Description:
Blueprint: H1 2-25, E1 28-37, H2 42-51, E2 78-86, E3 91-100, E4 107-113, H3 117-147, H4 168-177, H5 186-203, E5 211-216, E6 222-227, E7 230-238, E8 244-248, E9 254-265, E10 270-278, E11 284-285, E12 288-289, H6 290-293, E13 299-300, H7 309-318, E14 319-322, E15 352-359, E16 379-386
Parallel strand pairs: 1-2, 1-7, 5-10, 6-9, 13-16
Antiparallel strand pairs: 2-3, 3-4, 6-7, 8-9, 9-10, 11-12, 14-15, 15-16
Amino acid sequence: xxxxxxxxxxxxxxxxxxxxxxxxxxxxxxxxxxxxxxxxxxxxxxxxxxxxxxxxxxxxxxxxxxxxxxxxxxxxxxxxxxxxxxxxxxxxxxxxxxxxxxxxxxxxxxxxxxxxxxxxxxxxxxxxxxxxxxxxxxxxxxxxxxxxxxxxxxxxxxxxxxxxxxxxxxxxxxxxxxxxxxxxxxxxxxxxxxxxxxxxxxxxxxxxxxxxxxxxxxxxxxxxxxxxxxxxxxxxxxxxxxxxxxxxxxxxxxxxxxxxxxxxxxxxxxxxxxxxxxxxxxxxxxxxxxxxxxxxxxxxxxxxxxxxxxxxxxxxxxxxxxxxxxxxxxxxxxxxxxxxxxxxxxxxxxxxxxxxxxxxxxxxxxxxxxxxxxxxxxxxxxxxxxxxx
Length: 389
């Protein structure tokens, strides 16, 4: 009798072992994934591959016909090839990952693979595209910098809005040659970004595109590359080198954009989309960083700072006068260098006064793809002008 009991226990152990082994041989194969980094070696590439390992569902216990009540259900593992390309040195790493689900969590095994000839052809096509993009961006950056030597304002900088230039020639100059034009309207922003995208396209030479567009910045951009019937989508989230272009408007005035690149290159379509995101820590207006100039909900005191006529024009055109904060001290002698300030200045009719302007741009300075329908997060600036205006 004891022999029979031992036999049943032995059979049960074998069944559980077979069930667990079944999990390992019932693996599903997923499509090859590819990712780009700028300059990564073997270990970093392997780490990226591990981070991108396919996700599998954990096994759960369930009754199976003819099994013991506590036997595990059969669940599939997953296998996948992952390619990592290092653009700087044109290295191609390929890994084969096997993910096995289990009751205590999934186990991941990773194996080195030799890239196939198709892998290398597709990767080479991707490398060539990234070289063309980087060369074009560098060329555009250099051209913009050299063009600033000819930018000369038709009016001198001054303190106070009253002495700003009001001629149509001066306004046209500011729209074309000053970074404040970017913050005036969605149309102005589109024109600036479209112009940069067109310059990048021209910098890429004679390459023919079925579609070349500019849009908002993409955090998870992807470039699909195919040779014949085989193709991969190269994810750009690990591309460490910043793709960046600066449009310069003269000393102390520049707009710097981070770029994302997505698109498709195959035997039929060559499509590229350049995404833009303003970099406020590097961009400057009148020598002041944009992130320090456009501070949402705060009043930036510029009344004692010499700003250009283009800035003054921007504040007057885009801004709306608002009352000083009631808690601000009332002070000043009414001269241009020591103007009236605070709540008491609103009653002054002679001399010079500090005015506060409310300007609506967007809920985020870095993302100005569309004009705001309201003013949820305004910015405020002070400026000097004659009292009583």
